[in-house]
UniProtKB/TrEMBL annotation:
Transmembrane segments annotated in the record for this chain: 24-43
Cofactor: heme
Family, per entry: Belongs to the cytochrome P450 family.
Binding-site residues, heme: C450
Main function: Catalyzes the formation of aromatic C18 estrogens from C19 androgens.
GO MF annotations, alphabetized: aromatase activity; heme binding; iron ion binding
Record key words, sorted: Heme, Iron, Membrane, Metal-binding, Monooxygenase, Oxidoreductase, Transmembrane, Transmembrane helix
Enzyme Commission number(s): 1.14.14.14
Organism, scientific name: Myripristis murdjan (pinecone soldierfish)
Lineage, top ranks: Eukaryota, Metazoa, Chordata, Craniata, Vertebrata
Leader peptide range in chain numbering: none
Protein name in UniProt: aromatase
Gene: LOC115373833
Class of enzymatic activity (EC top level): oxidoreductase
Reaction equations catalysed: androst-4-ene-3,17-dione + 3 reduced [NADPH--hemoprotein reductase] + 3 O2 = estrone + formate + 3 oxidized [NADPH--hemoprotein reductase] + 4 H2O + 4 H(+); testosterone + 3 reduced [NADPH--hemoprotein reductase] + 3 O2 = 17beta-estradiol + formate + 3 oxidized [NADPH--hemoprotein reductase] + 4 H2O + 4 H(+)
Length: 506
């Protein structure tokens, strides 16, 4: 007797019987992939060890490498630098290898002649910027945007942002209450760069306690992206793209990127419509001050080709995300250094008072009248460089002055120096000329130096001058910063000072 069994039931039974075997096959496949990946990493590690044989370094854990030293960075940086100094000047005077886990390595370079070789060669490229002919073309097109004729009107915009911040400090001046600098300065530099890049006012005029209003989604996105980029750099597992993508911070990052890109694209679209009738910069400038976006939209190469919207968006993002955070770090630590060195602070104040001649603002012409203040700014950048390390990737073997050769791979230049005495006279012209120019590279050097370094230095001068004219900076001995070397130099416990009004207001 034949029994009819529906086909769909037969298929279901077969699927159920095969399912356990499929699980086994999938597990076996994943195991094979994992073994192949691990084998490739081991081969790569052996190759890296051979390539770095000429550059021995401090002992590394077989599994963690030097990650434990990174974890110890949650102590003040000066204590770390004592250990690094021992490695550098006694055992490894030019460069040494450093490992993040068992497979990721960097060549840590700290000798000026090594730095010169790396930064001046064309066989390397920056890890955070484009490479090849595209980079050279874009750099050439962007350079006019940082000409002094363009930067000159920005000084007033920077002054306005600084004054808004200083007005908000009045309550601290009256109570002598210690307060955290970086949050205030970061919002101020973001406000300034919004005006210079887009000719837009940001959310800086809202109360700092509420940070941002709902109508300023772009400002919040930029602020979130700066925070998340630094967080990802500090959290080792987040270096893996998959782990970061699946994490809550990865979701928050993608959301912020979407908001920022949408805003930038809208601004570019609207500005293109405004510029349809005016395609020459001199005609535009006759009507209003140029901003960074004008320069990008009107830029043309020798073939009269312009930047694409994607290129423009990328450059604006770089200007926004890298510009305001690094400048905020620099200004915050400059103010902290001056608070800790009242005699130098007073010399700067006297110089600024004389240069401004009773004015309550600072003009373009005044920036060249404060040389001692400029030396103090540079000395602070030496002690607390906003970007503590400059990453470069070597695309072909690179031989240094002592004959040692680094193979293709990554290099990390340490910007930190180990002389911790605050002495602005290091930057007197006669002292600068007697040492290697590559001993002080807070803005990098060579063809890939920071294109916005004049913009950043101008903003630092403006903010420091207006702050010292109005307030006396006082160190808070109970709240010294615990500095950590991340993507941008920061302090775990913030940067705190006290202020009080200057006795002799003009």
């Amino acid at each position: 007797m034949l029994i009819w069994i529906p086909h769909y039931l037969l298929r279901t039974q077969l699927n159920i019987s095969v399912l356990p075997h499929m699980h086994h096959l999938l597990a076996l496949l994943l195991l094979v992939v994992a073994v192949c990946k691990l084998t490739a990493l081991i081969v790569k590690r052996r190759e890296t060890l051979r390539n770095l044989e000429a550059f021995p370094g401090p002992p590394a854990h077989w599994l963690f490498g030097h990650v434990q030293e990174v974890i110890k960075s949650r102590t003040p940086i000066k204590k770390q630098c004592c250990n690094v100094t021992r490695y550098k000047y006694f055992q490894y005077p030019f460069a040494f290898q450093i490992w993040f886990g068992p497979f990721v390595s960097f060549l840590n370079i700290h000798h000026p002649d090594y730095v010169k070789t790396l930064l001046s060669t064309t066989g390397v490229y920056g890890l955070l910027v484009s490479s090849g002919q595209k980079w050279f073309r874009n750099r050439r097109l962007l350079t006019p945007g940082f000409h002094y004729d363009i930067l000159k009107p920005y000084v007033k915009l920077m002054s306005d942002s600084a004054k808004t911040m200083l007005d908000k400090w009045e309550s601290y001046a009256q109570t002598s209450e210690s307060f955290e600098l970086f949050e205030h300065v970061s919002l101020m530099t973001l406000d300034s760069i919004m005006k210079c890049a887009f000719s837009l006012n940001s959310a800086f005029n809202v109360r700092l306690s509420s940070h941002f209003s709902g109508t300023n989604a772009y400002i919040k996105a930029v602020y979130d992206l700066s925070f998340l980029i630094n967080l990802r750099f500090r959290v080792i597992p987040y270096h893996n793209n998959i782990i970061f993508h699946l994490s809550p911070h990865g979701f928050r990052f993608r959301k912020a990127v979407k908001v920022a890109h949408h805003h930038t694209e809208e601004v570019i679209r609207k500005r293109r419509e405004e510029l349809k009738k005016e395609t020459e910069l001199d005609r535009i400038q006759a009507k209003r001050n140029l901003d960074f976006l004008d320069i990008l939209l009107c830029a043309r190469d020798e073939n009269q080709h312009s930047l694409s919207d994607e290129d423009i968006r990328a450059e604006v993002d770089t200007f926004m995300f890298e510009g305001h955070d690094t400048t905020a770090s620099g200004i915050s630590f400059i103010l902290y250094c001056l608070a800790c060195n009242p005699e130098h602070q007073q010399m700067c104040r006297d110089e600024i008072t004389y240069a401004l001649e009773g004015k309550d603002t600072i003009d373009w012409e005044d920036l060249s009248k404060i040389p001692y203040t400029t030396m103090c700014i540079k000395e602070s950048l030496r002690l607390y460089p906003p970007v503590p390390g400059i990453a470069r990737k070597i695309t072909k073997p690179l031989t240094f002055f002592d004959g040692r050769t680094a193979a293709a791979g990554h290099c990390c230049i340490c910007v930190y120096l180990e002389i911790w005495v605050f002495d602005p006279l290091r930057f007197l012209p006669e002292n600068v000329s007697s040492r290697s120019p590559h001993a002080f590279v807070p803005f990098s050097a060579g063809p890939r130096n920071c294109i916005g370094q004049t913009f950043a230095m101008n903003e630092m001068k403006v903010v420091i001058a207006l702050t010292l004219r109005r307030y006396q900076l006082i160190e808070d001995p109970d709240r010294k910063p615990k500095v950590i070397p991340s993507l941008v130099l920061r302090s775990l416990n913030g940067i705190h000072i006290k202020i009080k009004p200057v006795d002799h207001q003009p």
